[in-house]
Amino acid sequence: MGRWPLVAVLVVQAVLSLRLVRADTAFQDEALYLWAGHLEWAHVLHGAPLPPFPSYFSGAPVIYPPLGALADSLGGLVAARILSLAFMLGTTIALWAIADRMFGRRAAFFAAALFAVLGPTLHVGSFATYDAMSLFLLSLASWLVVRAGDKQDATGWMVAAGVVLALANATAYASALFDPIVILMALIVAFPKPGGRVAAGRALTLLAIVAVFVIVGLLLGGNTYRHGVDLTTLTRVAGTDSPVVVLAHSWAWTGVVVAIAVCGVIIGWVTRPRSPQTWLLTLLACAALLVPLEQASLYTTASLNKHGDLGAWFAAIAAGYAIDWLIEAAPAGNMRAVTGGACVIALSFPVTLGASQSKVFATSWPNASAFITIFRPLADDGTGRLLVEDPSIAEYYLPAGSQWERWSSTRNIISRYGTPTGGPSSQAGIVGAGNAGTFASYIKISYFSLIALNFADTTSLDHSIAADIKRNPHYHAVQVVPYGPGPSGPQLGEYVIWQYEPQS
Question: Which of 36, 114, 24, 33 has the alpha carbon at shortest distance from 344?
Answer without folding.
Answer: 114
